[in-house]
Amino acid sequence: xxxxxxxxxxxxxxxxxxxxxxxxxxxxxxxxxxxxxxxxxxxxxxxxxxxxxxxxxxxxxxxxxxxxxxxxxxxxxxxxxxxxxxxxxxxxxxxxxxxxxxxxxxxxxxxxxxxxxxxxxxxxxxxxxxxxxxxxxxxxxxxxxxxxxxxxxxxxxxxxxxxxxxxxxxxxxxxxxxxxxxxxxxxxxxxxxxxxxxxxxxxxxxxxxxxxxxxxxxxxxxxxxxxxxxxxxxxxxxxxxxxxxxxxxxxxxxxxxxxxxxxxxxxxxxxxxxxxxxxxxxxxxxxxxxxxxxxxxxxxxxxxxxxxxxxxxxxxxxxxxxxxxxxxxxxxxxxxxxxxxxxxxxxxxxxxxxxxxxxxxxxxxxxxxxxxxxxxxxxxxxxxxxxxxxxxxxxxxxxxxxxxxxxxxxxxxxxxxxxxxxxxxxxxxxxxxxxx
Length: 436
What we know:
By secondary structure, the chain is α+β, with helices and mostly antiparallel strands. The chain is 47% helix and 13% strand. It has 17 helices and 13 strands. The strands form five sheets. A four-stranded antiparallel β-sheet has the order 6-7-3-8, sandwiched between helices. A three-stranded antiparallel β-sheet has the order 9-10-11. Strands 1-2 form a two-stranded antiparallel ribbon. Helix 1 packs antiparallel against helix 2. The longest helix has 25 residues, at 284-308.
């Protein structure tokens, strides 16, 4: 069969990709315009022709260090020139042809899979409350992948497409990157930030996925997040040792700060959710991250209020609009809906990647369909109301409560708890006009 790379030179491929991106609302208006112009002008053609030439390769990627919120460490990501990055995006889209080669226990970056499907499967197991759990996170996974170990896997998967294998071999074995305007030489792994990195990361651990899924009572992986269940503490500990040994064989290691063992009846967390005896809620990490974002936004707006000599009401209203967009993807004042992810038939969840996406799925659309309690939502509501009231005074005190709840509502505030129950009611009635 013709190489998958040859499809990159076909106008129909680019038109199909453009339609796909537009239909499933993965683009902002600006991004949609830029992609349409890129496709219609065939700006991709010289890049693809260079790529298809003998020994054809992309240029040298840029290496960037991105701050992790609340952490001293930085995340390393790579990106190629804009046009080359776009070509890689289309190639990553075409790589779904090899979806069957990916391990069925891996739920990341795949059509018809995703975090929601993983959580639904695990929490629906009839014996889940009687199982022991081990949760781990792989440290700096994408960039720590050993290319020498990855290439034989790719050679097997791409056995029917030698040019595609040669392209990836050249891409992965190159060691150049641009950092702060200077060319450096280093091992780059699968290069977090590049569109094809998630596919490579799924394949890399497929043997480990198979072994652990066979030996465990239940098993799931989402990129660098792994969760293992066993019927006894002894078996769980054996699988914990096995998982660590296998990761070491891949040149990887768990993040010790994110390892956790739990016994039957105790809470376990995975992909932002927490489960305990039938209750699905937000994980502690999810709550901490959201509260951190709320407090940072409140401090930033208070500084803005002082610089602009703006009124507290105007500043609080701005904070409320910002959080409403994050939570619900719409601006209540204008009624404008934010970018909201549509799904392909059978696709249950968004396909997030290490390098991020053009826009985030709204917070409520991500969490509301799975949680079955409002306990954590009430905590976040209380925290947000406290920060809104603190904007006016700059400190936490009882006098802040002079700004009544009704006043916050008049400024556009929407309670997560109330919106969650609205969502549940709409889902039960299956209202076609529901924003959820």
